[in-house]
Sequence to fold (139 residues):
Amino acid sequence: MSDQSNRIEREVAEAVLQRLIERAGEINAEEKYAWRIVRLELFGSMLDPSAATVGDIDIAIEIEPKSKERGGYIALAKSAWKRAPKGSQFWNWPEDEVLDHLLAGSDVISLHYHSDPEVRRWPGKVVFESELPSLDITF
Fold:
């Protein structure tokens, strides 16, 4: 039998999801971030409209650098590195900064990279897609 005590009321989960979508738009609009959100896809128990509660909010995420040119990305990354907290993984910080802002400290959102074959097995629903076309990045 599953533990029902850790489940989230659907209304609460929907509000958290809406704020997540808003933050994705903020990240893409904010020039300071070196990475952008290409797509967020909802999967898991949130897709069942009859479920009054959900275990968590499973999101498949696709992100990419905001600049196609190596020099443009380096400039954005250097700016992000200046904001990196002590003890952070320096080289990963430009991407981690975006993920941290997207999560906003939530313990009910579960992010998974869309490129993960395990994630792609599950049906999903796109809840956010960038208005900009995806970049063909080659460094």
Observations:
- The mean pLDDT is 85.
- The first strand starts at residue 8 and ends at 9.
- Residues 82 and 135 are 25 Å apart (CA to CA).
- The radius of gyration is 16 Å.
